[in-house]
Structure to design on (293 residues):
């Protein structure tokens, strides 16, 4: 069995954290996000005006429409134009979607033998859509925030693969040879896990603390200080993708359900939680079918 002392892990944590904080080539916030934020700060901005700006990036338009027409998203009618998407989703939620999609695009990586970019995107998107649907169903007021947190929850994995590829391959080797969980292998190799790295990114990009904390604790929502509900919703959505075998993203394989979400989300007991989860299975299958067809 592979053993490493806590002291060595702590040293690695400090070294890699400082390295990430000082990365010169870490992607910056895309220019379109600044332009959109500026427009949204003005109460006079119309849906048509915002739509014209977003339409400058047709790839972004396509992704927003994919989000809006997602079966898990639950909108009552098909959304065909970006202007209608803005009207039906609202300015705040459109802003959340654009932030999340821009960050995902900024950290887009090439596939390799241990990294399936398509599977990563699929997992992230399904988790985000499920988090939004769960938030709506439970009456969580900021369901757009749940979508953003769901889409970005595993962004730290992408950073490891892109900026620490040698260590990334070592992590994968440990998982394969020692049957370690990925999150434990991450801490063994670099002292940080992908939650920690996600938090560092959120801090560098000055994202809201509730969002940062939910990303930093999506495996263990009970540890969150600022918004346990949001972290619990993302955790549940993430867990559901594995329970229903959605996609083939292996990084969260054998994810353990944090049963503290039962009390955090007021879901009664474990039996009620299981029934609640099972009620989403058909929606998940419809979601994956719509994305793959």
């Amino acid at each position: 069995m592979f053993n490493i002392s806590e002291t060595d892990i702590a040293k690695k944590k400090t070294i890699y954290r400082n390295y990430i904080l000082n990365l010169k080539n870490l992607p910056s916030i895309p220019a379109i996000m600044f332009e959109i934020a500026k427009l949204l700060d003005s109460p006079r901005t119309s849906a048509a005006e915002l739509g014209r700006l977003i339409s400058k990036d047709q790839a972004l338009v396509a992704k927003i429409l994919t989000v809006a027409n997602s079966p898990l998203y639950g909108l009552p009618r098909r959304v065909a134009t970006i202007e209608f998407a803005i009207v039906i989703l609202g300015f705040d939620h459109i802003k959340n979607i654009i932030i999340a999609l821009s960050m995902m695009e900024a950290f887009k990586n090439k596939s390799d033998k241990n990294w399936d970019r398509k599977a990563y995107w699929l997992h992230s998107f399904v988790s985000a859509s499920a988090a939004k649907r769960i938030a709506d169903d439970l009456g969580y007021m900021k369901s757009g925030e749940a979508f953003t947190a769901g889409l970005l929850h595993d962004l730290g994995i992408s950073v490891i693969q892109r900026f620490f590829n040698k260590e990334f391959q070592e992590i994968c080797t440990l998982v394969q040879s020692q049957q370690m969980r990925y999150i434990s292998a991450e801490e063994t190799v670099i002292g940080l896990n992908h939650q920690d790295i996600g938090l560092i990114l959120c801090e560098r990009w000055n994202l809201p603390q509730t969002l940062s904390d939910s990303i930093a604790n999506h495996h263990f929502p009970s540890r969150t200080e600022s918004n346990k509900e949001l972290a619990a919703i993302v955790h549940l959505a993430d867990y559901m993708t594995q329970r229903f075998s959605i996609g083939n993203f292996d990084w969260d394989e054998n994810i353990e359900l944090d049963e503290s979400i039962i009390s955090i989300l007021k879901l009664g007991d474990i039996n009620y939680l299981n029934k609640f989860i099972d009620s989403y299975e058909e929606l998940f299958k419809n979601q994956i079918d719509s994305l793959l067809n």
About this structure: The chain has 17 helices and no strands. The chain has two domains: 6-23+111-292, 28-106.
